[in-house]
Amino acid sequence: MFGDIGGLEVVAIIVMAIVIFGPDKLPKLIQDTMGFIRKIRSFADNAKEDIRSELGPEFQNFDFEDLNPKTFVRKQLIGDGNDPLGLKDLKDSVDIKSALNGDSGGATRTPTASVDFAKAAADPGPALSVGERPPFDPDAT
C-alpha cells in the first residue's frame, strides 16, 4: 500500500506533522493513532474468529488470504507444492532475457523446449477451395 513512498517523502511528512501539530501534541497524536490501529486490528481478528466459528469445525484451517484472487489462482494452478501442469519445467527451460532480446541462440536451456513457434505460426494449413467455408471450432470462441 505504501510501497511507492520514498525516504524523502517520509521525512517531509514528519516535518509537516511537527510544524502542523507542534512537538508537544505530536506524541499524544501518535499514541492515539496507534491505539486506533490496534482497535481496528483486534476488530478484524475478532471478525475472522467469529466467521471461523460460524462456519464450523471443517473450516477451522480456512485462510482468509486464499480469497485474494492472485493467491487463489496460484493455488489452483500450482497446487500445494507440486506442479501438476509442469509450469516449473517450462519456466526453467526458457531463458526469458535472451527471448526478450531477440537472441535465437540462447532462447532455450534444454533441447525439450526447442519448438520453432514462428514456423508453426506461419503454416496456415491446407488451402480452401472456392466456396468452401473454413472449419468452425465452437470451443475456440
Automatic annotation (TrEMBL):
InterPro entries noted in UniProt: TatA/B/E
Keyword entries, A-Z: Membrane, Protein transport, Translocation, Transmembrane, Transmembrane helix, Transport
Main location: membrane
Domain of life of the source: Bacteria
Region listing for Disordered, in residue ranges: 122-141
Cell compartments where the protein resides: Membrane
Keyword Protein biosynthesis: no
Keyword Nucleotide-binding applies: no
Positions of transmembrane segments: 6-23
Membrane topology qualifier: Single-pass membrane protein
Protein's name in the database: Sec-independent translocase
Lineage of the species this protein comes from: Bacteria, Bacillati, Actinomycetota, Actinomycetes, Kitasatosporales
